[in-house]
Write a sequence for this structure.
DNA sequence: CCGCGCGGTCAAATCGTTTCGATCCAGGTG
DNA sequence: CACCTGGATCGAAACGATTTGACCGCGCGG
């Protein structure tokens, strides 16, 4: 019980050895408060003789009442969540900003959709704030667990949560802009490849009833933005923002679904990964882009492997979003009342969209 | 000073309200030790009346002497490190296994190569063990910082470190196998696209002197494996395992570097991302794969966007590697002496390698 | 009838640090 | 020479929990 000689030296032992009080020794390390350089050196010398490696973070945290840890709830296992460059870039901005304040990021796997149990880390891990990067469902078990524990929450890209700052993107306006671009090029038969709807991941065309279930953000916002301009001739739902799902969807949409004469002349996808999959499917079907079909994405990712095509996409400031999330966390910890914001997005035309083919 | 009425209720207050001692109240929550169901309910009731949300992790951690946190040092900012699916998959396996023990993963950005300062988290954050996933340099400042703090370390994919278990892959054998495959197909003019060498990232052909500087793993191991079978006609060094770098390298190697008659007939890349870039470059140059040039990668990633090509690659059990790292961490915490291992790898032929073109 | 053992409860010691307020001392001022 | 000021140091009280060993009835076997 700590009586073993092998247990690490403590500040008290260092102080004793240096012939000063514990409080003074603490001062020598924390740097705050007045202390003679001479005394400090004495303490530091004693510390190094004893092999003391600096104040124990656990003691410090308890005393301070802060862990210096920010829990980041990722949508799923990292293996899936981080296959999406969008999540990665947001995380990057977040880590960067939090790093400037010495805050660390603790990775918390979100719920396995369909499971009711949440990760034990959510219930027990020490964290000063939690960030929900990937949106919030209605009746989100993750959010509930955090609120039960009174952990302050910052929400990225979801519906607003009582008392929690929200950092969003102007999804709806962006989606509308992308579709307007297609309409201006003359397209009328526009197909939509959508992100997951929420609970119950599936793939395939969505009917009106199913469309009404899309409660996850940003899916719902992007759907709304598209419909602000035009009604898609078909909406193909996917289980995740991955290239292979976009490819599967577009293979159906462009291939067997309808006779060639009624084939959609343009596809708008909810994400660049889905759009890239659509581009690949079109290539495989022998269609020229954008002569036969136009394809627009959403995210503004840099996808060198899609070469020579460059996606027409809606650029989002993703690292900036992560950074804003970080700022919100910091403000929250400083006791300030942080404000929600929506970051602007903008269409960046590439080579994958062009005038509607003359028939 | 905790004298404010707004401060959270503590176990002591709950105990007082329930009319029991603090120790009994603790028992009611921790579940260990004998306690009458009746008493437990009394405590739980008092807790919910007071809005007590369970034992404060900070207090618990201090008492236990454990934080339940595993620091994972990623090579760089997440934005760069996680663009590599290899790192992501390893992390995935790691998080999964640690999760079963209630251990959380704290993300720690590695050093900015060239900077001498390490991330403050490395110096101050609470962690029971640290994992270096992405290899260790000789004289690694990150490793030094951890050793100075007496934090136990588990190393993935690097050189062995005194007292730290190592979880590696049979890189050398795998690389040799890939090249042997090319040689058996008749290739003799084989070019190598390599991972970063270590400090000082650059891109371009590497001369003998430069080759000697490759001290980072797994680069060094893969280079050695390749040379166990054949000497590459050229080694092109890249600053990171990214598609665009592979593309740039292959554009040079296959294009302008030598007259077409002396052009390498095969390329072996140290990673699948680099190899994928090479495939794209070959396509852009109008070369057929594998008729004009064979390309082999390393990692065994699933790259749907490379369709219709499927990379010939050396499959690595990446999630398994992460899981083993996790096990090593758990063993270390249990006081057992964990052992180092090297996981087997195996060649998986795809469509990107074929017989040497007849000239 | 006595003592033993056992399940449930409690008191007290720790874990290692930070910080508030008090103390002490040297040096400058009236 | 006494007083005051301000900087350096110190003591002690938190911070919030876990855990050990003692304690205390009570039921049962001898």
């Amino acid at each position: 019980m700590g009586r073993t000689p092998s247990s690490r030296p403590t500040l008290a032992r260092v102080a004793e050895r240096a012939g000063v009080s514990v409080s003074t020794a603490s001062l020598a390390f924390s740097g705050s408060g007045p202390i003679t350089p001479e005394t400090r050196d004495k303490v530091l010398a004693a510390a190094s003789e004893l092999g003391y490696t600096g104040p124990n973070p656990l003691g410090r945290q308890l005393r301070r009442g802060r862990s210096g840890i920010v829990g980041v709830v990722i949508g799923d296992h990292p293996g899936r969540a981080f296959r999406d460059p969008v999540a990665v870039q947001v995380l990057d901005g977040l880590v960067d900003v939090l790093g400037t304040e010495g805050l660390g990021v603790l990775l918390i796997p979100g719920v396995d959709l369909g499971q009711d149990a949440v990760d034990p880390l959510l219930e027990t891990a020490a964290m000063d704030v939690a960030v929900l990067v990937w949106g919030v469902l209605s009746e989100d078990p993750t959010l509930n667990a955090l609120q039960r524990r009174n952990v302050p929450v910052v929400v990225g890209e979801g519906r607003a949560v009582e008392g929690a700052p929200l950092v969003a993107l102007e999804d709806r306006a962006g989606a509308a802009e992308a579709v307007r671009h297609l309409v201006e090029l003359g397209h009328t038969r526009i197909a939509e490849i959508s992100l997951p709807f929420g609970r119950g991941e599936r793939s395939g065309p969505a009917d009106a009833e199913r469309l009404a279930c899309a409660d996850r953000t940003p899916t719902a916002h992007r759907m709304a933005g598209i419909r602000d301009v035009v009604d898609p001739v078909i909406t193909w739902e996917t289980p995740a923002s991955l290239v292979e799902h976009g490819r599967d969807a577009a293979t159906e949409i462009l291939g067997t679904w309808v006779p060639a004469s009624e084939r959609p002349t343009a596809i708008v996808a909810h994400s660049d990964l889905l759009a890239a999959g659509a581009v690949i499917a079109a290539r495989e079907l022998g269609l020229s882009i954008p002569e036969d079909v136009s394809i627009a994405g959403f995210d503004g990712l840099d996808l060198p492997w899609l070469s020579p095509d460059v996606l027409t996409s809606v650029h989002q400031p993703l690292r900036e979003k992560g950074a804003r999330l970080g700022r919100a966390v910091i403000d929250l910890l400083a006791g300030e009342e942080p404000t929600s914001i929506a970051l602007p997005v903008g269409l960046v035309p590439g080579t994958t969209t062009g005038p509607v083919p003359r028939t």
About this structure: The longest strand of chain B covers residues 69-74. Chain B touches chain A through 59 residues (CB under 8 Å).
